[in-house]
Design a protein that fits this description.
By secondary structure, the chain is an alpha+beta fold. It has one domain: 3-Layer(aba) Sandwich (Aminopeptidase), CATH 3.40.630.30. Helix content is 36%, strand content 33%. It contains six helices and seven strands. Strands 1-2-3-4-5-7-6 form a seven-stranded mixed β-sheet. The longest helix has 20 residues, at 169-188. It is globular and about 50 Å long.
């Protein structure tokens, strides 16, 4: 249904069109960018990504059937010594495909890259405590809440709290295998 491809310059205008408020930018990217999002900020984000030895891998999410770009996800802060990385900038940009399980598929694909391609031991992420649909998606993928960073981000006159979550390689294998067995039994009817 989806596939991840390296993010490239041709996807910049579409990504920028999805980020339409300071609140949405903070929710999507944390403090990485400032509003309004510009092409120069995205180019800086891309400049050392997606190369051998990079510690950041940035992906566009495409529908397999049409090749249409519908989202964005990144695997960053890769530490090859300690075998860890961070999932971030998770976005289903196309509103027509939201609420259809795309987020779960995105997590499945990026974790497959993290654990099978890069042989990582631990993958973490941060999610604001009010984003219940994202939290449910991450828990379904096998992530565990580690702790709440209380009021750690300021937007306007408000402070937002952030859940830190992670998944370890052996937890992913268990979740991945359980989902594979379930999908196989559904397919057989």
């Amino acid at each position: 249904m989806i596939e991840l491809h390296y993010f490239d310059r041709s996807h910049i205008p579409q990504l920028m069109s999805w980020i339409d408020t300071p609140e949405f930018l903070l929710q999507w990217a944390g403090p990485t960018f400032h509003y309004p999002l510009t092409e120069q900020q995205i180019e800086k984000y891309m400049e050392s990504a997606n190369m051998d030895g990079s510690n950041s891998f940035i992906y566009s999410v495409l529908l397999k059937e049409t090749g249409e770009v519908i989202g964005h996800i990144a695997l960053t802060n890769m530490d090859r010594v300690h075998k860890s990385a961070r999932v971030g900038k998770v976005l289903i940009g196309d509103p027509r495909v939201r609420g259809k399980g795309i987020g779960s598929l995105m997590m499945k694909e990026v974790l497959k890259i993290a654990f099978e391609q890069f042989h990582l031991h631990r993958v973490s992420l941060g999610v604001f405590d009010f984003n219940q649909s994202a939290i449910a998606c991450y828990e379904k993928a096998g992530f565990t809440k580690e702790g709440l960073l209380r009021e750690c981000r300021k937007i306007g006159n408000q402070y937002w709290s952030l859940w830190e979550m992670s998944i370890l390689a052996h937890e992913w294998k268990k979740t991945f295998l359980e989902n594979s067995v379930l999908n196989e039994s559904i397919r057989k009817g």
